[in-house]
């Protein structure tokens, strides 16, 4: 039987990262549940054993169920029947298999029927599921909504809704509207408190809602009369069994056909406030979106892994001119870069997930007791790192997934353009990854703060100070020179002013330079622990050298008057 966890040594490698021991101890509160709950671990190794066993189970289901069903799900899609979205038959089978296995709600506390896993194995599960079926990963990943309820809901809401996750209840985050896509401050769906029913009533339209008829919805709505910006928005829980939501349509999409995307009409739909009024966008949605962007990172890496493996297998089997095409260096280079890009974004994915784990666990502990001064500083450090690494992850992983699925088709040649093979589906599924949960352009807007405030530069210098074997000396020397180039580029563009058009125009180049440096350093650090990453570290260092030189050349020659040509052709 195939297994998408057991066949990938890189995943077990990430679970053994040195920081994981500290993460597990904090998550388990020094194993205080042991002896009280039968499946609670007694120590770090016991917890890791649980992680490995559960991920192996998910890996088996992903390979033997999700991957097997993916083609039929893509062909069948979804339909509306009696105001309900009906999943494809394969999607129903996928969901049942994972529900029966008891693996929904991995990171929720045990008191809410969760497994109390840290965020790293939860993100890893999302990667594994995505390798099986990128579209189904959205149904799996929207259990992130439960994390938001856990973080910001009251105890009654937690006790009511969180145990439903493990039972297979589905979730959605209902944010966007016909006139409010990326600009969520423009949300109009109205929330009015009804004193007789002691609840809020929602009225309006939501569009492009993934898993639109989910059992439990988190809805962003305007609760403050007369407001027009984000300060008038609050967050609400809506239970589908209470009625009041009509599914107007499902979208006919390019890819991820098994993931239903709906347009919804709310008519006096009962809802209950999450947390405090006016913080719906400013605090709660931003937290949920950061989790969703990490999820898209996992989705992207999983799809890249699937594309690479398909291309590699085909290249070994397909013969042209009397030999397998993998023997041609033009094909070897494509495959090597696909592997390196996948390894690089996976390294960035779990670096980000570890940062999220550290600060979220400490935030949770702060609700139980006062943090020590050192703990408070640790929380701040990892929170800041998560803030700058998350948009970088979303940017690079989604762009690389598009490149890798493109190259997968290229390796297949004309056959890859046909529906006989999964690579054309991978390519269609990948296209949404640079768009939803914030486009690549919006990720740059979020990430540029890491350039302006020096967060990326400081982290790069920290990586430089991590001791590695002498065999990495040449790579490290290359990256040191590139870091100096990065500083020179920032200084040049900063001279125009951080609020200038020139800075905005070049912001993506600056973020990308930082990203190439960070991914190359992470791969060197990983390769220092395991030689299986040596080739990827070498290739990514060369890639960084080439790409940064290109961007530096542009910035070196940039003048403010150069913007006029771009303005002329975009008017």
Into which percent range does the helicity of residues fall? 55-70%
Poorly predicted regions: none
Largest sheet, strands/sense/barrel? 7 strands, mixed
What percent strand?
A: 5-15%
First-last Cα distance? 57 Å
- Number of extended strands: 11
Report the radius of gyration as a whole number of Å.
24 Å
Order of helices and strands: HHHEEHHHHHHEEEEEEEHEEHHHHHHHHH
The residue-averaged pLDDT reads 96
Characterization of this structure:
By secondary structure, this protein is of the alpha+beta class. Helix content is 58%, strand content 11%. The protein has 19 helices and 11 strands. The chain has helices at 9-15, 19-27, 44-76, 89-100, 119-132, 136-141, 144-152, 155-161, 163-166, 280-317, 329-366, 373-412, 423-430, 440-452, 455-464, 473-494, 501-529, 534-556, 563-569, and strands at residues 79-81, 84-86, 171-174, 190-194, 199-210, 216-222, 233-239, 245-250, 261-274, 319-320, 323-324. The strands form 3 sheets. Strands 3, 4, 5, 6, 7, 8 and 9 form a 7-stranded mixed sheet that branches. A two-stranded antiparallel sheet has the order 1-2. The protein has a two-stranded antiparallel ribbon with strand order 10-11. A hairpin with a 4-residue loop joins strand 4 (190-194) and strand 5. Helix 12 (373-412) crosses helix 13 (423-430), helix 16 packs parallel to helix 18 and helix 17 packs antiparallel against helix 18 (534-556). The longest helix has 40 residues, at 373-412. The N and C termini lie far apart (57 Å). The relative contact order is 0.08. The model has no long low-confidence stretch (mean pLDDT 96).
């Amino acid at each position: 039987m195939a297994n998408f966890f057991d066949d990938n040594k890189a995943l077990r490698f990430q679970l053994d990262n040195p920081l994981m021991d500290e993460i597990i101890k904090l998550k388990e509160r020094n194993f205080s549940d042991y002896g009280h709950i039968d499946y609670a671990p007694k120590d770090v190794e016991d917890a890791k054993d649980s992680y490995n066993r559960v991920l192996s189970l998910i890996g088996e289901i992903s390979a033997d169920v999700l991957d097997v069903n993916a083609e039929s799900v893509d062909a069948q899609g979804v339909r509306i029947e009696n105001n309900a979205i009906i999943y494809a038959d394969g999607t129903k089978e996928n969901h049942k298999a994972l529900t029966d296995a008891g693996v929904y709600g991995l990171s929720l506390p045990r008191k809410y029927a969760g497994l109390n896993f840290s965020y790293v194995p939860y993100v890893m599960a999302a990667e594994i599921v995505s390798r099986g079926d990128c579209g189904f990963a959205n149904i799996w990943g929207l259990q992130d909504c439960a994390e938001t309820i856990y973080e910001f809901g009251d105890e009654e809401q937690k006790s009511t809704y969180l145990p439903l996750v493990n039972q297979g209840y589905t979730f959605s985050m209902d944010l966007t509207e016909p006139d409010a896509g990326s600009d969520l401050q423009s949300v109009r769906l109205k929330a009015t408190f009804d004193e007789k029913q002691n609840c809020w009533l929602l009225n309006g339209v939501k569009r492009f809602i993934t898993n639109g008829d989910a059992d439990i919805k988190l809805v962003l709505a305007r609760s403050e009369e007369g407001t027009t910006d984000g300060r008038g928005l609050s967050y609400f829980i809506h239970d589908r069994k209470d009625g009041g939501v009509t599914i107007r349509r499902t979208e006919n999409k390019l890819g991820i056909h098994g993931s239903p995307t709906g347009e919804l009409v709310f008519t006096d739909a009962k809802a209950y406030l999450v947390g405090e009024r006016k913080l719906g966008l400013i605090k709660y949605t931003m937290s949920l979106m950061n989790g969703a962007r990490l999820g898209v990172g996992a989705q992207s890496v999983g799809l890249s892994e699937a594309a690479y493996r398909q291309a590699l297998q085909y290249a070994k089997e397909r013969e042209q001119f009397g030999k397998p095409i993998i023997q041609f260096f033009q094909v070897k280079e494509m495959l090597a870069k696909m592997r390196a890009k996948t390894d690089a974004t996976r390294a960035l994915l779990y670096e980000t997930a570890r940062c999220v784990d550290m600060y979220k666990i400490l935030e949770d502990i702060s609700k139980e007791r006062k943090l020590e001064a050192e703990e408070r500083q640790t929380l701040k450090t990892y929170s800041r790192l998560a803030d700058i690494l998350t948009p970088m992850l979303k940017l690079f992983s989604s762009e690389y997934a598009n490149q890798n699925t493109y190259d997968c088709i290229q390796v297949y040649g004309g056959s890859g353009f046909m529906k006989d093979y999964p690579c054309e589906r991978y390519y269609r599924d990948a296209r949404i990854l640079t768009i939803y949960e914030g486009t690549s352009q919006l990720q740059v807007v979020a990430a540029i703060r890491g350039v302006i405030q020096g967060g990326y530069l400081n982290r790069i210098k920290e990586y430089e100070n991590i001791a590695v074997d002498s065999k990495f000396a040449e790579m490290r020397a290359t990256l040191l020179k590139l870091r100096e180039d990065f500083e020179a580029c920032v200084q040049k563009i900063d001279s125009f002013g951080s609020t200038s058009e020139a800075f905005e125009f070049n912001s993506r180049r600056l973020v990308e330079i930082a990203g190439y440096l960070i991914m190359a350093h992470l791969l060197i650090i990983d390769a220092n622990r395991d030689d299986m990453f040596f080739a990827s570290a070498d290739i990514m260092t060369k890639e960084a050298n080439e790409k940064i030189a290109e961007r530096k050349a542009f910035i070196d020659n940039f003048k403010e008057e150069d913007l006029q040509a771009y303005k002329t052709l975009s008017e």
